Amino acid sequence: MQVYIHVGYPKNASTMLQTDIFPNLPGFTYGGRSYGTERAFATAGLDEAIRSISLEDSLRYDPSKVRGQVAQALAQLVPANGRLLISWEAFMHNITDRGLIATRLKELFPNAKILFIIRNQLDSIESMYHFLVAQGGGNINPAYGRPSVRSLKAWLSDQEDFSYRSYLETLKYDEMYALYARLFSSENVKVLLFEDLKQAPQDFLDELGKFLGTGHIQTGLMQQRNARASAGMGRIFKLRNWLHSSGLNFAVPRFISGSLKKLLLAMWGGHVQERLCSTQREAFAARYRKGNARLQAVTGKDLGASGYPV
Hints:
Layout: E1 2-8, H1 14-21, E2 28-32, H2 44-55, H3 63-77, E3 83-87, H4 98-108, E4 113-118, H5 121-135, H6 152-161, H7 173-184, E5 189-193, H8 194-199, H9 201-212, H10 231-245, H11 254-268, H12 278-299
Parallel strand pairs: 1-3, 1-4, 2-3, 4-5
């Protein structure tokens, strides 16, 4: 049995891959992450095990229990010579020690092949901020900070105030690649670029298919999911968040809310989305440049050509 684990990163087309691509790969059993189903992972035991791996600290984590849950799930789901794919971008979140998560995955799936999908850090920062605003505080990693109703600048300041659990620190890709390459060996760790998916989707899918051993994957499987909201919708989300934070939680009939959205979009639709200013971009480029250069050297990926600071 061969296990493949897609470990992240968040906001890098994870939902599309988990919904449109991974469940439709020939010869694979897809173990999750899934949406709109009873549970996120294929069996109750696997669901509990994956959440334990990712969320529990060392005091609560029970390795023997998790090993039993994983073994039972594998026996139940996958033929002896089959292939299993597990995907959860939360393996890269900052709630639990990410190095500890990697070590647990190694202990449970010692021969696994690991898939990273990364994105230019400056774009990732903007994307995560707008996602948190749109989420309005629901179903998100609270360590990333509750969505700011103020500004991108204020959210970044909040992140810097608690650097030990900052989203910004999770974007040092070279550190995580080095750890997984050491644990699983570099030939079993694959890095793909979000920018390739956007600019040359068939090339991206061909590279993914080669790593997974599935051959050609059709771009027709892909659908656009979790697209970034427009500037106007971002302002609507902030207004909603402000109302909720003020204790005004109420439901508006759809025909009224639809008309209200149209009105607000007409008022604000022409405004530019909040973006990193030149000073912020320069500072973040300096933060990530050396690590990106190291990652480029060991993976052969031309990060500079895709706009990464190197």
